[in-house]
């Protein structure tokens, strides 16, 4: 396969998008919609990436995807770290970490700075794979690596279930390649992808957030995702009043049911209104990796409670 074609395929794998798709949404290479591209700010306590020693982070954000947790970290030096962890399965073994870095470097943001890919300059520090390259105007650091253990993955050769990408560029007069390498390798070597265990020891939880209430019109169930997550794709955010009204209407153990509120739509069809049919649709959605384990359990409980 020619280098240009390889680069195109690799970038599709990186950004998960193709032409003629909603530019505000993220997709897999196969076209499955994952969620909105919009990031939401979180505090240190809720971050799943912690650091040994001084905290180098300026800002933390997350995206609400159906198949993975994704967090973007802006460092105090304005560098970026993007961390993803699949809920099930593993990343494709088709491309190496070095090839993924190459796919990034051939893009305009780096080409315009005069940065080129030189495979002989790709380096390793433990699991960290990175490239430091300079031009007449800029010095850039690009890293990408996959690690962890694939779960529920049928392909034996599948890679791990976690990936990290990192990048930063300085004007050539501001920092040398040696200094930039030392700075970024130090930061990334101190990162711990520990589901936030280290952060929960360092930071106090944020003030109690208002709960988020969601309604799934296809399954006719309500749920309350744990902060800081919001409603999954296809669900509608509803008010607490609407949530409580639905519970009273659909839970036979509640007191006298009240009519459903106007902002909660009725089920799309009569067959889907039966608990058994809704459970079947829920199982189908779960098999397609459209729900996180927590969302699956919450919706399953809501259906069973209504039986």
Report on this model:
This protein has 307 residues and is α+β, with helices and mostly antiparallel strands. The protein has helices spanning 3-15, 97-105, 108-111, 177-190, 197-202, 240-250, 275-287, 293-305; strands at residues 25-27, 33-36, 40-42, 50-51, 57-64, 68-75, 80-86, 122-125, 128-134, 138-147, 162-171, 191-192, 213-216, 221-223, 236-238. Mean pLDDT is 79; it is low at 1-19, 254-261 and 264-272.
- Determine Rg (CA atoms, Å): 23 Å
Give the DSSP E fraction (strand runs of 2 or more residues): 25-35%
Alpha carbon gap, first and last residue: 56 Å
Low-confidence parts, pLDDT < 50 over ≥5 residues?
A: 1-19, 254-261, 264-272
Shape annotation: elongated
Q: Based on helices, strands and strand pairing, what is the structural class?
A: alpha+beta
- Strand order within the widest beta sheet: 3-5-6-7-11-10-9-8
How many strands, which pairing sense, and closed or not: the largest β-sheet?
8 strands, antiparallel
Number of domains: 2
- The multimeric state of the shown protein is single chain
> Residue-averaged pLDDT, rounded?
79
The strand count comes to 15
User: What's the number of helices?
Assistant: 8
Chain-wise SSE layout:
Blueprint lengths: L2 H13 L9 E3 L5 E4 L3 E3 L7 E2 L5 E8 L3 E8 L4 E7 L10 H9 L2 H4 L10 E4 L2 E7 L3 E10 L14 E10 L5 H14 E2 L4 H6 L10 E4 L4 E3 L12 E3 L1 H11 L24 H13 L5 H13 L2
Helix pairs in contact: 1-2, 7-8
Looking at this protein, list some descriptive labels.
elongated; 8-stranded antiparallel sheet; 27% helix; disordered N terminus; 15 strands; 307 residues
């Amino acid at each position: 396969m020619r280098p240009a074609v390889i680069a195109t395929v690799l970038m599709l794998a990186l950004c998960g998008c193709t032409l003629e798709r909603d530019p505000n949404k993220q997709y897999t290479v196969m076209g499955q919609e994952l969620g909105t591209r919009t990031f939401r700010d979180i505090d240190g306590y809720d971050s799943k990436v912690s650091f040994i020693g001084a905290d180098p982070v300026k800002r933390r954000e997350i995206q609400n995807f159906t198949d993975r947790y994704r967090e973007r970290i802006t460092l105090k030096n304005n560098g970026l770290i993007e961390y993803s962890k699949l809920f099930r399965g593993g990343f494709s073994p088709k491309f190496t970490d070095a090839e993924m870095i190459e796919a990034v470097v051939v893009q305009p943001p780096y080409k315009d700075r005069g940065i080129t890919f030189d495979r002989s300059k790709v380096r390793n520090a433990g699991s960290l794979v990175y490239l430091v390259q300079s031009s007449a105007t800029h010095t850039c650091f690009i890293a990408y690596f996959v690690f962890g253990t694939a779960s529920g993955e049928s392909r034996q050769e599948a890679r791990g279930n976690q990936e990290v990408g990192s990048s930063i560029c300085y004007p050539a007069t501001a920092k040398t390649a040696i200094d930039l390498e030392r700075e970024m390798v130090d930061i990334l070597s101190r990162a711990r992808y520990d589901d936030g265990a280290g952060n929960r020891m360092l930071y106090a939880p944020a003030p109690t957030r208002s709960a988020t209430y969601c309604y799934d019109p296809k399954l006719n169930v309500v749920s309350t995702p744990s902060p800081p997550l919001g409603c999954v794709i296809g669900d509608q955010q509803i008010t607490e009043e609407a949530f409580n009204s639905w519970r009273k209407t659909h839970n036979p153990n509640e007191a006298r049911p009240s009519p459903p509120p106007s902002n909660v739509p009725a089920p799309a069809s009569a067959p889907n209104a039966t608990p058994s049919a809704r459970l079947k649709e829920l199982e189908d959605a779960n098999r397609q990796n459209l729900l996180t384990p927590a969302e699956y359990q919450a919706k399953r409980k809501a259906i069973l409670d209504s039986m």
